[in-house]
Amino acid sequence: MISNDLLKGTLRTIVLKLLKENSRLYGYEITQKVEELSGGEIKLTFGALYPVLHKLEAEGYVVTEKEHNGKRVRIYYSLTPEGVSWAQSLVDEFEDFVLTMRLILQPLPAQ
Amino acid sequence: MISNDLLKGTLRTIVLKLLKENSRLYGYEITQKVEELSGGEIKLTFGALYPVLHKLEAEGYVVTEKEHNGKRVRIYYSLTPEGVSWAQSLVDEFEDFVLTMRLILQPLPAQ
DNA sequence: GCATTATGTATAATAAACTTATATATTTGT
DNA sequence: ACAAATATATAAGTTTATTATACATAATGC
For chain B, how long is the longest CA-to-CA vector? Predict the structure, then answer.
């Protein structure tokens, strides 16, 4: 399992990227996808996920649609155009972050 | 500049790794090294650094020695054996984290 | 039939971590 | 003299995630 400390700050990145790849997902599905894609290394908790989803909605990055199958209500989340471009920004930002971290964590032998 | 959100949780990793490479450093020197190594992309604030250093000391990962040159007091921090091995663990953990994040952020085209 | 597991959304209290603001003081360059 | 750089440190506030909890349905095993 990946340390929670490292995961902090990547929740939005993960959620937005998954929504970008999948057009629409519901909350529970997001937790499943994350666990599946990460090979069980990352497990989102609902207490962390839903506040983020609600905030993303309030900020205009995602929109929701309710769907009833049987008596069960499912809330699907999908990206707005702003959400799509922010998703890409956050993924790019993550890669920059990794490159920068490596400057510190892997100093060149010749240095 | 790297997003603060991403940086959260990596402070300990950065500090311990720098101390591992440098045998001993004082607080101000750590902020300088981080800025220098990261090409200005990462700037530690003292409000974040000192609490971490104090906590690492309290937990037995670093020890301090005061040095007086003139009237100025410098507090040097260096790793204990536990600190050395934890530094390596955190660096390894960071690389695992990156690999896992990429499983989510860069799904294979064939997938 | 009953219990358990899986599915599903959500909030509240708490804890951890960092940011921002602030305080204090010395040294160096101009 | 004055400003900028050097140096350590704390306090208040904010953000963010964890843990615990609540509620409810559907499917599966026994």
Answer: 65
Which strand D nucleotides have any atom less than 7 A from protein CB atoms? Answer: 6-12, 16-22, 24-26
User: DSSP assignment of B16-69, as one string?
Assistant: HHHHHHHS-EEHHHHHHHHHHHTTTS----HHHHHHHHHHHHHTTSEEEEEEEE
Pair of tokens at residue B27: 């607080």
pLDDT tens-digit readout, B26-38? 999 999 999 999 9
Whether the Cβ atoms of residue B57 and residue B77 lie closer than 8 Å to each other: yes
A107 pLDDT more than 70: no
Question: Which chain A residues are within 8 Å of B21, Cβ to Cβ?
Answer: 107
Q: Is any atom of strand C within 7 angstroms of residue A97's beta carbon?
A: no
Give the span between the Cα atoms of B35 and A13, in whole angstroms: 25
Nucleotide nearest A77 (Cα, C1')? C9
Tell me if chain B has a CB within 8 Å of the CB of A58.
Answer: no
Chain B positions touching A101 (Cβ under 8 A) are: 10, 14, 94
Structural domains for chain B = 4-105 (1.10.10.10)
**Å from B108 to nearest chain A CA?**
11
pLDDT in tens, B45-73: 999 999 999 999 999 999 999 988 777 88
Orientation of helix A46-58 relative to helix A27-37, angle to 10°: 120
